[in-house]
Specification:
single chain; alpha/beta; 2 domains; 5-stranded parallel β-sheet; 32% helix; binds zinc ion
Length: 195
């Protein structure tokens, strides 16, 4: 069974994430305190940590540094959770080589669980960048039930299609989402589709 430590400031948020991960067959540990998160990581390293940028005592970035310093656990990947998706949080996550960056108001717990499974090698994903071939991109988007737009309506940058191959469903099912890599805007709900 896969293991994850969820260290978030908000207990309701923890409950939402816990449900998504247990639904996806994870063994879940939780805490609202950074010191406790570090203790838990050192005592019994999980396969993944999801930690809040605003966690009390030690935040996600402090934890990234502490993990990096410790040879016993420096392979444990950590995903930064930011409720607002603040630019500063994103930059720090990148700088400290966090595994991923989750934004509380736009990334659902269900999507997060999918992404974690992908990071752990349980799923395979492809990203199609519209800029690489706008004509084919527009047709593919249309065939998948989206419009033919290839540019973000908010920031006008090129959109990307994210295709997640669901190996546990036999591998011929893809979960698809259309999103803007620049401002993270999403177009429509992601869905299971056979290709
Ligand atoms: Zn955009």
């Amino acid at each position: 069974m896969r293991t994850i430590l969820i260290a978030l400031k908000n207990q309701n948020m923890i409950n939402n994430f816990r449900k998504s991960f247990t639904d996806n067959d994870f063994e879940v540990k939780t805490t609202t305190d950074g010191n406790e998160a570090l203790r838990s990581i050192l005592e019994d390293p999980p396969e993944m940590v999801l930690a809040d940028a605003n966690l009390n005592n030690l935040n996600a970035f402090d934890l990234l540094e502490k993990i990096e310093e410790n040879e016993e656990v420096n392979k444990v990947p950590l995903i930064v959770f930011s409720q607002t998706g603040a630019k500063l949080h994103r930059e720090k996550a990148l700088e400290l080589e966090a595994k991923d960056f989750i934004v509380g108001y736009s990334d659902s717990p269900r999507e997060t669980a999918m992404r974690v499974k992908r990071h752990l090698g349980d799923e395979k994903a492809y990203i199609f960048k519209m800029i690489s071939n706008p004509q084919a991109g527009a047709e593919l988007a249309e065939d998948l039930g989206y419009g033919r737009e290839t540019k973000c309506s908010s920031c006008e940058k090129d959109l990307s299609l994210y295709l997640l191959r669901r190996l546990e469903l036999g591998g011929d099912i893809f979960q698809v989402s259309l999103f803007c890599p620049n401002c993270s805007k999403k177009y429509g709900e992601s869905d299971k589709k056979a290709i």
